[in-house]
C-alpha cells in the first residue's frame, strides 16, 4: 500500500464576496453574492454519460474522494462504484461516503462493512431511530454530490443504482441529468459535503478553504451553489426559481420529476405565459411515486388553461430536475417541486449563468420533447372518473407527498 497524500490543512473564514456580473446576466441573479467566476460545466445526460464520467474521475483521485447520495444500491452499478473506491482506498486515498439511511434502506451491512475494512469512512444520514432526540423520519439527505481532490465535482439528479444505468447495460434506463463542474464552485460543494458529514456523525477533518479565497478559473461560467441546510435557508431554492421565472422574457423550460408547485410558483409561471413567454414543462408520464403522478395531473390541468405547454414523458421514469431561462440561466440539481424538497430534505442545486450551458440543456430539452405527449384540458377530460377522483384526493394531501 502506498502512503496517503496528506490533505492540505486550510482553515480560513468564509466570506461572501460580491461578483460583478455582466449586465446581460445580472438581471437573472437574485443575489450578487457567492457567485463563482471562471467555472466550467459539462452537462451529462442519463447514466450512460454520467456514470463513466464519475468513475473516471474517481479512478484518477490522488488525495480525497467525497460522495454524498440519497440512494446507494448494492446492485451492478453500486458494485462498480465500490470496486473503484476499494482500489483508491488501497492506494492511500482518503474516501468518505454518506448515504441516506431511508433512501438506501435496502443496502446490506456487508456493503459498507467491506468499504470500512478497506479504510473508507462510511456514515448513514439520519438512521431510523425513534428514540433519538429530535429524530424526524421525513428529514432526508436527498443530495447527490461527488467531489474528487477538491478539484472536480459532480452534482445533479442521479443516484447510484441500476435504475439510472442505460438499458444497453441491463439498467432501468431512467432519464436524468447531471453535471461535471470545475473551478471555484468545487470548493463550495466540498464545504457543503463537510458540513453534512460532520452533522451525520463523521470524523473531523481539515476545513476546506472558502471558494471566495480561491482565484477564479478560466472557464466561461458563473455558478452559485444554493444551500438549504439551515432552517432560515429553507426557501432559498424556491425564491431563486421565483426570481428567474419573473425575470424571463423569452422562455422557461423545466424538467422535474415530482412536479407539485405551490401557489406562488404556479402564479409566477402563469404570469410568464400570459406575457408571452414560452413556458414548457416536462414531467413523468408514469412516475415511480403514483400519488405524486396523480396529484400532478390535477395541478397541470390548471396550468395548461393559461397557455403553459405540459409534456408527459413516455417510457421509463423521467427523474431530471433542470430548468433553463431565456437561454442564459440554468439549474441542475436534486430539487423537486414537492413538499419534501421544500420543507424536509437536504437538497443541492447549482444555478449557472452561461449561454453555452443553457444551450446544451435547451438542446437536451428539445430532444426530450420528441419523446413526450402533450397534456392539456382535453386530456384531463378524457381521463376516467376514478383517475380524476384519485388526482383530486392526491392533490389534497400533497403536503405529505
How are the strands ordered across the major sheet?
4-3-2-5-6-7-1-8-14-13-12-9-10-11-15
Mean pLDDT: 92
Low-confidence region ranges: 1-14
Query: Domains counted in the coordinates: how many?
Result: 2
What gyration radius follows from the Cα positions, in whole Å?
21 Å
Report the CATH C-level class of the largest domain. Alpha Beta
Number of DSSP strands? 15
Number of continuous helical runs = 12
Which bin fits the share of residues in helices?
A: 25-40%
What is the CATH architecture term of the largest domain? 2-Layer Sandwich
Outline type: globular
The CATH homologous superfamily of the largest domain corresponds to: Endonuclease Chain A
> Which class of secondary structure composition applies to the elements?
alpha+beta
At CATH level 3, the topology of the largest domain is Endonuclease, Chain A
Which tags fit this structure?
alpha+beta; Endonuclease, Chain A; disordered N terminus; 12 helices; 15-stranded mixed β-sheet; 401 residues
Question: What's the short story on this structure?
Answer:
With 401 residues, this protein is of the alpha+beta class. The protein has helices spanning 23-26, 46-59, 76-90, 109-117, 185-199, 236-247, 263-274, 290-304, 339-344, 355-369, 377-381, 385-396; strands at residues 36-45, 64-69, 94-100, 121-125, 145-148, 152-156, 177-182, 221-227, 251-256, 278-284, 309-313, 321-325, 329-333, 348-353, 372-375.
Amino acid at each position: 500500500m502506498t502512503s496517503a497524500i496528506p490533505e492540505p490543512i486550510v482553515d480560513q473564514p468564509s466570506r461572501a464576496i460580491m461578483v460583478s456580473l455582466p449586465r446581460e446576466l445580472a438581471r437573472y441573479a437574485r443575489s450578487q453574492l457567492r457567485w463563482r467566476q471562471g467555472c466550467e460545466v459539462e452537462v451529462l445526460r442519463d447514466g450512460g454519460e454520467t456514470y463513466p464520467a464519475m468513475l473516471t474521475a474517481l479512478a484518477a483521485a490522488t488525495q480525497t474522494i467525497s460522495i454524498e447520495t440519497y440512494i446507494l444500491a448494492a446492485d451492478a452499478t453500486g458494485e462498480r462504484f465500490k470496486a473503484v473506491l476499494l482500489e483508491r482506498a488501497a492506494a492511500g486515498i482518503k474516501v468518505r461516503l454518506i448515504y441516506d439511511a431511508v433512501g438506501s434502506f435496502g443496502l446490506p451491512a456487508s456493503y459498507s462493512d467491506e468499504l470500512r475494512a478497506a479504510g473508507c469512512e462510511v456514515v448513514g444520514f439520519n438512521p431510523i431511530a425513534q428514540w433519538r432526540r429530535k429524530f424526524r423520519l421525513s428529514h432526508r439527505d436527498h443530495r447527490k454530490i461527488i467531489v474528487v481532490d477538491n478539484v472536480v465535482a459532480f452534482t445533479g439528479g442521479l443516484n447510484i443504482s441500476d435504475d439510472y444505468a442505460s438499458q444497453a447495460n441491463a439498467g432501468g434506463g431512467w432519464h436524468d441529468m447531471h453535471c461535471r463542474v470545475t473551478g471555484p464552485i468545487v470548493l463550495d460543494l466540498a464545504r457543503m459535503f463537510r458540513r453534512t458529514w460532520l452533522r451525520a456523525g463523521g470524523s473531523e477533518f481539515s476545513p476546506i478553504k472558502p471558494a471566495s479565497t480561491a482565484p477564479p478559473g478560466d472557464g466561461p461560467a458563473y455558478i452559485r451553489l444554493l444551500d438549504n441546510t439551515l432552517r432560515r435557508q429553507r426557501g432559498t431554492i424556491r425564491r431563486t426559481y421565483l426570481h428567474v421565472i419573473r425575470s424571463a422574457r423569452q422562455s422557461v423550460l423545466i424538467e422535474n420529476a415530482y412536479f407539485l408547485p405551490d401557489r406562488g410558483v404556479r402564479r409566477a409561471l402563469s404570469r410568464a405565459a400570459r406575457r408571452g413567454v414560452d413556458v414548457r414543462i416536462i414531467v413523468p408520464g408514469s412516475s415511480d411515486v403514483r400519488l405524486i403522478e396523480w396529484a400532478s395531473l390535477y395541478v397541470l390541468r390548471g396550468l395548461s388553461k393559461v397557455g403553459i405547454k405540459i409534456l408527459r414523458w413516455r417510457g421509463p421514469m423521467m427523474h431530471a430536475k433542470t430548468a433553463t431561462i431565456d437561454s442564459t440561466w440554468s439549474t441542475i440539481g436534486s430539487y423537486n417541486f414537492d413538499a419534501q424538497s421544500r420543507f424536509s430534505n437536504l437538497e443541492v442545486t447549482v444555478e449557472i449563468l452561461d449561454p453555452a450551458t443553457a444551450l446544451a440543456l435547451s438542446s437536451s430539452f428539445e430532444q426530450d420533447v420528441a419523446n413526450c405527449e402533450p397534456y392539456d384540458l382535453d386530456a384531463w377530460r378524457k381521463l376516467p372518473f376514478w383517475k380524476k377522483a384519485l388526482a383530486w384526493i392526491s392533490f389534497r394531501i400533497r403536503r405529505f407527498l
